[in-house]
Amino acid sequence: MAELLYRLGRFAAHHVRVVIAAWVAILAVAGVGYSVGAGTLSDSFSIPGTPTQEVTDQLAEVMPDLAGGTGTVVLTTSDDEPFTDEQIADLSEAFTEVTDVDGVEAVVDPFTTEAERDAQTAELEDGQQQIEDGRAQIEDGRAQIEAGQQQIDEARAELEAGQEQLDAAREQAEAAGLAEASAPQLNAQQEQIDAGLAELETQQAALDEQSAELEAGAEELEEQAAQAEDGAALLDLASGIQVVSDDGATAVATVSFTEDLLDVSQETKDGVIDTLTEEVGAIDGVEVDFGADIATETPQIVGPGEIAGLIVAAITLFVMLGTFIGAGLPLLTALIGVGIATLGALSFSSVVQMSSVTPVLGLMLGLAVGIDYALFIINRHRRQLKEGYAVDESVALANGTSGNAVVFAGSTVMIALLALNVTGIPFLGLMGTVAAGAVLIAVLVAITLTPALLSLVGMRILSRKERAVLEAEHPQAGAEGDHATSHIAPKREKPIKPIGTWAAVGRVLIGVAVLLVVAIPSLDLRINLPDGASAEPGTTSYESYQTISEEFGPGVNGPLLVVAELPEAISEDEAVATEVEIGETIAAVDDVEALAPVGLSDDGTVIAFQVIPTGGPTDESTEALVHELRGLSPLDDGTEIGVAGSASGNIDISEKLSDALPLYLGVVVGLSLIILILVFRSILVPLIATGGFVLSYYAALGGVVAIYQWGWLGGVFNVDNPGPVLNFLPTILVGVLFGLAMDYQLFLGSGMREAYAHGAPAKVAVAQGFRAGRSVVTAAAIIMISVFGGFIFAEDAMIRPIGFALAFGVLVDAFVVRMWIIPALMTLLGDAAWWLPKWLDKILPDVDVEGAALERKHPHVDPADGVSTGSTDTTPVEPVETDETK
């Protein structure tokens, strides 16, 4: 690889125009691709197979009207007075206009909804009064029937008594022999009694019929009463759901889309925003804000913070290189690289679902590593020029040596990022792939365009003072022009003194203790996607979220959709009672503020409820509520309970990411060990380097939790509403920080390894390698921190914590782990640091990262005397005391 890069560097140095033209052409192609294929970016995420997605898919089959996405529109009066009838009428017309937007299914008019609810309440109250009146009438009827029955019974008793008297009289007449004489009179009396009994039977039949009718009416009335009670119960369960505030000055309208929210086009959302902004703007005294589900604006790729970061990086480069040309070259190549990478990634945004974070992450990494990788090559080239190399010779050799290290370092970062695909989470894999592509382009630019530009600027890569020193000490250098110089005698530096044993112990203890303390907040890590509360204050999504929280409660910002799948189909007559039964079970769960049934499937097997939590969409109580609701399933009658909604979906995604993190961390740590064993041919160095990465990782997470979750220093970092950490940040941080940590370990550790391999004592080798690499690693880390830090103040709430995590992670890893703890540990280990089993040493390939073999193959010939020289270290070394010399 080193030889190939050497030839590539020499080709670039000899064909400057071709190389520059090629990269300009690639940039132009990326620009054309962007103009043709750029699509809409999203702030919503989904993962196939989550419980929320399964419920959503079920609804799409049985209740497609509920499967579409919804958006929130908040309306307020500018004078805080209730909406007037005229304003309400004008708003209703505005809602009608919105339904004409392509992709909009309907708009729920809050005033119509409240009017219907009031009408239902009034109707229910009237019905309950009528039921009470009916019950009173039935009781009166029962009393009348009872009185009539009593009269009939009394009359029947009198007739029966008369019958007994008549029978006794007939017996007496027969006994006296007067039967025939008294027969007419007795028969007449019998006829009267029979007629009376017949009349009583008729009256009894009529009374029984009246009683039956009355009881039937009573039964029907009780059925109506039961329905009214169920209706009252549903209204009571839904009493906490409002769409118009108590003071009548705020209303919430809901826009229903034909597609799932993830599939709703930006054109549709923009159409809703434009229509309502225009229509509401024409209504005097009414203001409108849009929830984050509609107002998903694509964040600016570059803002003031990012520009400030670049300025700091430029200053760092100028301080290190001492020339504007030297400082400008890494910035130029990095900007070209990220331009190609970002435009190229966005060219596919119309084909694949891409989040707004994806191209920004690629921009962050591409810019940071692009500057650093160019710096490594330029720094090596400048050093060689001072040692007497010709420009083209130096360019080729710098590309073969430092360029080889750049390729290796970039490959490490790319592998770590591409490994995000093993998590099985599509949007995370896409982020890793796009970021890896940005790093790949940064590497390619560094090893092709950078050599070409170095050849183009020639000796001007050195400062005037440095060139003047060359001319003064070696006048013959100028005779050969810009492409040859004479050797400058290196300055004699102070002797290298290894770290003392007790100093090394102190460094390790202090460094590890500090990192462990900083990492403590990571134990309280909670992850989720940011809600409207995390938006920039003053934006429409922020105002919408805050207004809803204040007027209707935080839970209205994140309603849940609870779906009950019944064991048997029910009829429409049974629906209300079933809804009440299931609704009361749901309402009994803690942290349920209110609920309302929103649909019954055509086959009568699925009921959907809207459930309002007491907490906001990212509150711990809402997360616990989702789990508890799912824990209800199945109910005693076999009903299955499922939960969906944006809040539920975000919780599921966060849990899926948490579950995938250990696997990914294990892959990265394992990869780290393998790579470092190959590079350093050691067992202990990879172990302590990987352990240092783990410390850096959790320290960075601790800083993120303290600031973005706990709210520490919130005023400094623009954190107005602390909340859960961005759910995919811990996973992204693993890949990026691992790659960068290995870069720093490589550039510091390889120098230590080289010094040890050339015979320096182990402790001295550590000091030599550290001195050789500290300046470039320091500059590279400062540049990384500056670039990443610029994103801390980005507009997008998802970008800010990523920028901080990467900047703080690099700060901790570079300056505390790589330049403080690791050298001390390696000093304490001594020769043991480089121990490797013989059997493993035989089978491991020789990975010449720094290109030492290339230097031997292409030795520098000093033009003054024709003697071949190599890159030597003339720094004096103090003798090191050992047990034998004491």
UniProtKB/TrEMBL annotation:
Residues 331-456 form the SSD domain. It is found in: Cell membrane. Signal peptide: none annotated. Residues 160-187, 859-886 are annotated as: Disordered. The keyword Magnesium does not apply. Gene3D superfamilies: 1.10.287.1490, Multidrug efflux transporter AcrB transmembrane domain (1.20.1640.10). Pfam families: MMPL. Residues 174-186 have a biased composition (Low complexity). Keywords: Cell membrane, Membrane, Transmembrane, Transmembrane helix. It is a multi-pass membrane protein. GO terms for cellular component: plasma membrane. The chain crosses the membrane at residues 307-327, 334-354, 360-378, 405-428, 434-457, 499-520, 661-680, 687-708, 728-748, 776-794, 806-829. This is Putative drug exporter of the RND superfamily. It comes from Paraoerskovia marina. The lineage of its organism: Bacteria, Bacillati, Actinomycetota, Actinomycetes, Micrococcales.
